[in-house]
Amino acid sequence: MPRDNMASLVQRVARQAGITFRSPAGPAFGENLHRLQQLLDEVRAEDLHLVPRGPAAAAAAGGGVPWAGVVPPVSYMHICETESFSMGVFLLRSGACIPLHDHPGMNGMLKVLYGTLRIACMDTLPPAAAAPPPPAAAAAGGPCHRALFRSRQHYTPASPPCLLSPHTDNLHEIDAVDGPAAFLDILAPPYDPQHGRDCHYYRLLEGPLPPDAEPPALPREVWLLETPQAADFWCGSEPYAGPRVCL
């Protein structure tokens, strides 16, 4: 049997990610990205030896090292990392949220393995002299940024991967809906504060909607307030028990 046919699906995804993100400015990047997207779309929880968890299973599984006796709302399974990309699995407990954050200068792909995620995606916008000032609520806060709120969609294992690029959908917020959820995550290149790729968190500056009011239509311009990492959000770690990946 040919070696490529013997390789696990996650090994083939990692190999294609290495090819794709080795030269993100090269002429074949679009074709390689499409091939990676196709492979990632095939991945299911069982390919990573991952068993969907019930509402209370995260606590029973440990979910990493508890902090002050509390299981982390989100855990991460590290699979592999190179200078070009990182790949791992995020596991969200029921009702957990990964707050709105950015990926400076990075590409990314997210594939839901089980559960349902609601993902809000935004783009940063350049400063504009004619733009309205930020809301008064931001006066005593941190830096404010104009952004384009592009979409808010639900993703399930049947959905195609959610993509981000350095300029499109680069900011996102991820909520677990109606139970625990997990997704396979690829970031290229990995976060690296020493090279200007630190993670920044944001809060959407919008007032509460009146009762029975419909959410404003998308896309629309919004203001974001840069904030510290929320005190109720942190990420634990769990061992990865899926097929070995060699790069």
TrEMBL record:
Oxidoreductase among keywords: yes
Pfam families assigned to the protein according to its UniProt record, in alphabetical order: PCO_ADO (PF07847)
Annotated Gene Ontology cellular component terms: mitochondrion
Keywords of the record: Dioxygenase, Iron, Metal-binding, Oxidoreductase
GO molecular function: metal ion binding; oxidoreductase activity, acting on single donors with incorporation of molecular oxygen, incorporation of two atoms of oxygen
Superkingdom, natural source: Eukaryota
Record carries keyword Oxidoreductase: yes
Protein's recorded name: AEDO dioxygenase
UniProt source species: Pterocles burchelli
